Amino acid sequence: MSVYAIVNALFKDIPDVEGDKINGVNSFAQQFGHKQVFWICVWLLEIIYGVGILVGLSSTRFWIRLLMVIGHGIFGFTLWKKANLVDLDSMEATESFYQVIWKHEELKKLRVSLNFVQNKASADLGFY
User: Fold this and answer.
1) Max CA distance (Å), the chain
2) pTM, two decimal places
3) What span, in angstroms and rounded, lies between the C-alpha atoms of 126 and 25?
4) pLDDT at position 56
5) Given its phi and psi angles, is residue 61 left (phi above 0), alpha (psi -120 to 50 degrees) or beta?
6) Of the residues 58, 71, 88, 111, which has the fewest C-beta atoms closer than 10 A?
């Protein structure tokens, strides 16, 4: 299971803590508090982006280094900036931030696909 899947599983329960209490569901957000779980999720994602930067820096190809460092740096910066603007007592604000996480995930998939296409094109043209 990827860290993204763990973050998504933890984060999806944050806006519905009150509903979990009413229905007797013992979620992670209810046990430890929605604010703590929110920041645990943010830190897990920031660690992922930091690892992505380190992996990018270890690449032998300049364009991979460039894409990985800039891409993960932008993802990490925007995530941190938006996380600090979230009103954690507002269900709408936390749901909106959850959408930001999904957008980051979809953009990451697009970036990985573009890297694959570029690698395939380079190999087909004999640039490897």
Assistant:
1) 62
2) 0.79
3) 57
4) 87
5) beta
6) 58
